[in-house]
Design goal:
binds pyridoxal-5'-phosphate; 17% strand; single chain; alpha/beta
Length: 230
């Protein structure tokens, strides 16, 4: 399941990402592939890391911590991309280089406090729930500015951009308007807050082409690299 087949899929994917970037006038170096390894083994992560993949994304705190303990390569960058339960927040600072799914004020304060205790500054993205889907995390667009304002006033959090996960569509083109909206939300926030937010985390296996074309800097891709999940 992993092995050569996985490496082949990964190499092809990276080539497609580069080609898409060049095709729309973007520098491929401005786009990072986050390999989403949830529900895949530490062994698969190690193999991919051995081949040169640096960024990995995980959704579940306990699974991620166990896996990190079993993966021995150094220099890997770990992203937390799952829903964050308040009682699990304390495990995130010091274990994840970037948290993509900060979506509420209480959680921001908890993460800030934990980061402070670890004497570190935690980079975060705000997850925006553009379609206001009840089953999904993310703050609604109308509350985005207030949350961003609150985060930038917290000393031990560093706001680096926005993340979204559009509704699921068979047809990838239908994700595009959401990616455009996230980009516009970021632009507006940068103007209002007077600071630069480098990242747009958007695009998965089904719609990463559209995401690149609309400005993604972090692609979160799982099945295309690791194969189907259980
Ligand atoms: C699982 C997951 C992904 C990756 O999904 P694929 O379709 O397997 O590429 C990306 N982002 C989030 C938030 C996820 O939960």
């Amino acid at each position: 399941m992993y092995g050569q087949e996985m490496i082949k899929r990964w190499l092809e994917l990276k080539q497609e990402i580069d080609n898409t970037a060049l095709g729309c006038g973007r520098n491929p170096e401005d786009i990072r592939l986050v390999a989403v390894s949830k529900l895949h083994s530490a062994e698969a992560v190690s193999e991919l890391a051995q081949a040169g993949q640096v960024d990995f994304g995980e959704n579940y705190v306990q699974e991620a911590l166990d896996k990190k303990n079993q993966v021995h390569q150094t220099g890997l960058i770990w992203h937390f991309i799952g829903h964050i339960q308040t009682n699990k927040a304390k495990f995130l600072p010091s274990n994840f280089d970037l948290i993509h799914t900060l979506d509420r004020s209480k959680l921001a304060r908890t993460l800030d406090q934990k980061a402070k205790e670890q004497t570190l500054v935690q980079p975060v993205l705000i997850q925006v729930n553009l379609a206001e889907e009840k089953q999904k995390g993310g703050i609604s667009e109308k509350d985005l500015f207030d949350l961003a304002q609150e985060i930038i006033n917290l000393e031990n959090l560093k706001l680096e951009g926005l993340m979204c996960m559009p509704p699921f569509f068979q047809e990838a083109e239908r994700s595009r308007p959401y990616f455009v909206r996230l980009r516009e939300n970021k632009k507006e926030l940068q103007q209002k807050l007077g600071l630069n937010l480098p990242h747009l985390s958007m695009g998965m296996t089904g719609d990463y082409i559209q995401a690149i074309e609309e400005g993604a800097t972090l692609l979160r891709i799982g099945s295309r690299v690791f194969g189907p999940r259980e």
